[in-house]
Write a structure and sequence with these properties.
The chain has helices at about 5-20, 30-45, 50-65, 70-85, 90-105, 115-145, 150-180, 190-205, 205-235, 240-270, 275-285, 290-305, 305-320, 335-350; strands at about 110, 110-115. It is mostly helical. The protein folds into two domains: about 5-265, Serine Threonine Protein Phosphatase 5, Tetratricopeptide repeat (Alpha Horseshoe); about 290-350, no CATH class. Helix 3 runs antiparallel to helix 4 and helix 5 packs antiparallel against helix 6 (about 115-145).
Length: about 350
């Protein structure tokens, strides 16, 4: 797993295994096959082939059941596949694996559970909570129907309460595990902070914590990007290293854009318009603005009578959408063009 450095994590967990137990005797052939399956699992995971990685972890665990490194990879494979397929059972299986890892003494460093496993649990609980969001939306849509019979309506009402309760429990668990990670110097990374921000955002009512963690995560992302940019600029770096560094920077910029959007939205919802505009200005300076953000900011400029700025944002909105479709295909283009014309008319009327 790239953001954790899965091979580093695996090595740490393997060391815990070797120092925590006497070891079982295996044939030379089994030892060789075990090493192959472990290496293949990590390679497949890092290349995004989660189904193949999952198969390799299972093969390794058939040879040796007590392999925390393989169980961790197995859990993350199930989490990735479960999220992609919206399969709650696979995410639940990942949670069961991570919970077992947390409880085993093999993964305890100085009497505390491994921060990698804490992060894994935080991610899995967050993923499970978001699946409850989907279930809640589905039930609420059914309840909105006037044709739903009384008994079915009552059953859906009870199901809705359970979904809300389970969602809240998973979010609270996610925050608890992720806060444990960010309190550990080795685990306090931008990725852990971002996951914590997402959990706090979904939980609601904890704006100050969300904002503080979001700001910290932005600083951590910038520090990480400086490292990767130094690799890009280093004339002694291999071509492979430079390409890898470029991908890391691009990935971090996407995370930065997502974080800044969450922070900007928080300011907007709290009525902090100046802070909201300042955040969007920073995003624009860093070329992270999206079409939707241009459209939303145009509303504010129009309300303030800054028709020139509103027009500029609406034109940027159309240009960005035009990268993916023609104006004829865009069902919003005609309306936005009319709005631009009306704003220009207002500007002319001012003389």
């Amino acid at each position: 797993m790239r953001e954790f450095g899965m091979r580093v994590v695996a090595a740490a967990l393997l060391l815990a295994t070797l120092t925590g137990c006497g070891g079982l005797l295996r044939s030379d052939r089994d030892e060789a096959m075990l090493a192959v399956h472990q290496s293949n699992a990590l390679d497949y995971y890092d290349s995004g082939n989660y189904a193949q990685a999952l198969d390799q972890t299972r093969r390794a665990l058939e040879l040796e059941a007590d392999l925390p490194d393989m169980k961790l990879v197995q859990g993350f494979c199930l989490l990735k596949i479960g999220k992609a397929n919206r399969d709650a059972s696979q995410v639940d299986e990942a949670l069961e694996i991570f919970t077992g890892l947390r409880q085993t003494s093999l993964l305890k460093l100085s009497g505390e559970p491994s921060y990698q496993v804490e992060h894994a649990l935080g991610r899995a609980h967050l993923a499970r909570a978001l699946m409850h969001d989907d279930a809640i939306a589905h039930i609420e849509q059914r309840l909105s129907s006037e044709y739903l019979a009384g008994d079915a309506r009552a059953a859906d009402g009870r199901a809705l309460k359970r979904e809300h309760a389970d969602r809240l429990e998973h979010l609270n668990d996610a925050v608890r595990h992720l806060q444990t990670v960010t309190n550990e110097p080795r685990g306090d990374t931008a990725h852990a902070r971002i996951d914590l921000v997402l959990a706090l955002n979904s939980l609601g009512g904890r704006d100050s914590e969300m904002l503080s963690n979001g700001r910290t995560a932005l600083k951590q992302l910038e520090q990480t990007n400086r490292y990767w940019r130094n690799i890009q600029a280093n004339g002694n770096s291999s071509a492979e290293s430079k390409v890898g560094a470029e991908l890391q920077v691009e990935n971090n910029l996407k995370k930065e854009a997502m974080l800044r959007d969450l922070i900007a939205t928080l300011h907007y919802n709290r009525g902090e318009t100046e802070a909201y505009l300042a955040e969007l200005a920073e995003m624009e300076a860093r070329q992270l603005m999206t079409a939707v953000q241009h459209f939303n900011r145009a509303e504010i400029w129009e309300q303030r009578g800054r028709y020139d700025l509103a027009i500029a944002d609406l034109e940027a909105f159309l240009r960005m959408r035009g990268q993916h479709m023609t104006f004829e295909q865009d069902d919003r283009a005609a309306q936005v063009f009319r709005r631009i014309d009306a704003l220009r008319s207002r500007l002319r009327s001012r003389g």
